[in-house]
Amino acid sequence: QVQLVESGGGLVQSGDSLRLSCAASGRTFSSATMGWFRRAPGKGREFVAAIRWSDGRTYYAASVKGRFTISRANAENTVYLRMNSLKPEDTADYFCAVKFSDSADYGSWGQGTQVTVSS
Fold this sequence. Notes:
Elements: E1 3-7, E2 10-13, E3 18-25, E4 32-39, E5 45-52, E6 58-60, E7 68-73, E8 78-83, E9 92-100, E10 108-109, E11 113-118
Parallel strand pairs: 2-11
Antiparallel strand pairs: 1-3, 3-8, 4-5, 4-9, 5-6, 7-8, 9-10, 9-11
């Protein structure tokens, strides 16, 4: 069973940086795409970024492109989300998720980590 554990959230000021981590276990991830999503207070879930494990190809939402960077550490089965130039509108619960090449949907999710950006 796949397990995803996020960490690294916190309270920061506008313009600050944070790095979120997602430790994955329970399966071989060579065919996986790992994604980060967020849910702001009172809003729906939003895609943030994703990385294809096999070749490192990355995908970003327009709202974070140029400020956020997703990366992976193969040996540790860990995915990172480096968030720079944070804005109050980045305040949300951040979740990592995984989908495999045999599925179109993200089937496993972490418990989330909270990011609060004060102005």
